[in-house]
Specification:
By secondary structure, the chain is α+β, with helices and mostly antiparallel strands. It folds into 3 domains: about 55 residues, Roll (Structural Genomics Hypothetical 15.5 Kd Protein In mrcA-pckA Intergenic Region, Chain A); about 80 residues, 2-Layer Sandwich (Pseudouridine synthase), CATH 3.30.2350; about 110 residues, Pseudouridine synthase, CATH 3.30.2350. It contains 7 helices and 17 strands. Strands 7, 8, 9, 10, 11, 14, 15, 16 and 17 form a 9-stranded mixed β-sheet that branches. A 4-stranded antiparallel β-sheet has the order 1-6-3-4. Strands 2-5 form a two-stranded antiparallel ribbon. The longest helix is centred in the middle third of the chain and has 12 residues. The chain is globular. It starts with a strand and ends with a helix. The relative contact order is 0.13. The model has no long low-confidence stretch (mean pLDDT about 95).
């Protein structure tokens, strides 16, 4: 397998490598002890604290073949260079060392879709991700030039992504921006005003309900769990999001078994043709049922 290279999140080196590559922590620690993990070109101990943004390179990981999955996914846009697909809730975006099957990538392979080779072997075609519990639109590259161009567009925040979220309580303003840096602590993300990475989220109220708010959310940056953590940080966690305070009676009353978060719209200029690509994906049935229940009080 080629060397794995990524920009580090803040945190302890072995924890960050484990999360970034999806490998067992023991495997990450063995690679560090063997000198196969470099931080900005230098070996570091497993307890080394990363500030975030360092280049981490890991070598010597064994490759394994990705198996096609016969379960299809909906395609909302396709041309010779890229796809826009609808990821169902509960489906992981791409394989990891610990999970080799039943991901979106496995499903695309099962559909016979051409995918770019990917900067990492387990992520062919993948230029951005959605959390497993989040449903909605993903842009997928079919060839390497398109992957490189799309990845650069995402880094420059040139892809307009819109989410629908049902937040606990009534949001106090019709439009506002949450501007708060984020940092990783183990498996969780939290607001980190000192060592965190810049993160900003635009929020616009769509519908005020008695005990909840339907909001359209646009992340200006693309940090892990960004929308979930930002809404939780302002006291209005996403209903159904048990990891960040959105569980409990309100979520159970609506029948929510996952966060009410759906990537419903994506819009961008095609990086190769220059045409406009726009796609919309309505709420899936489980979130529609929850929203109807919220409206009835």
């Amino acid at each position: 397998m080629p060397n794995q290279r990524f920009a580090a999140d803040p945190g302890r080196l072995d924890v960050v490598v484990t999360a970034a590559l999806g490998i067992p922590r023991g495997e990450a620690q063995r690679a560090i002890a063997d000198g196969r993990v470099l931080v900005d070109g230098r070996p570091r101990p497993k307890s080394f604290r990363l500030a975030g943004g360092e280049t981490v390179e890991v070598s010597g990981l064994e490759a394994s073949v990705l198996e096609p999955d016969p379960e299809p996914v909906r395609i909302l846009h396709e041309d010779e260079h890229l796809l826009v697909v609808s990821k169902p809730a509960g489906v992981v975006t791409h394989p990891t060392r610990a999970r080799r099957t039943a991901t979106l990538v496995n499903r695309l392979l099962g559909m016979g879709v051409a995918l770019s080779s990917g900067a990492e072997p387990d992520r062919p075609g993948i230029v951005h991700r959605l959390d497993a519990g989040t449903s909605g639109l993903l842009v997928v590259a079919k060839d390497d030039p398109t992957e490189a161009a799309l990845s650069a567009m995402f880094r420059r925040h040139e892809v307009d992504r819109r989410y629908l979220a049902l937040a606990r309580g009534r949001l106090p303003h019709p439009r506002f921006v949450i501007d708060a840096p984020l940092e990783r602590r183990g498996a969780r993300i939290r607001v980190g005003p000192v060592g965190g990475r810049e993160a900003a989220t635009e929020v616009e109220v769509r519908e005020l309900l008695d005990r909840a708010t339907l909001a359209e959310v646009r992340p200006r940056t693309g940090r892990t769990h960004q929308i979930r953590v930002h809404l939780s940080a302002v006291g209005h966690p996403i209903l159904g999001d048990r990891a960040y305070g959105g569980g409990g009676g309100d979520a159970s009353r609506l029948g929510l078994r996952r966060p009410f978060l759906h990537a419903w719209r994506v819009s961008f200029v095609h990086p190769l043709t220059g045409g406009r690509v726009e796609a919309e994906d309505p709420l899936p049935p489980d979130l529609e049922r929850a929203l109807r229940a919220a409206r009835t009080g």
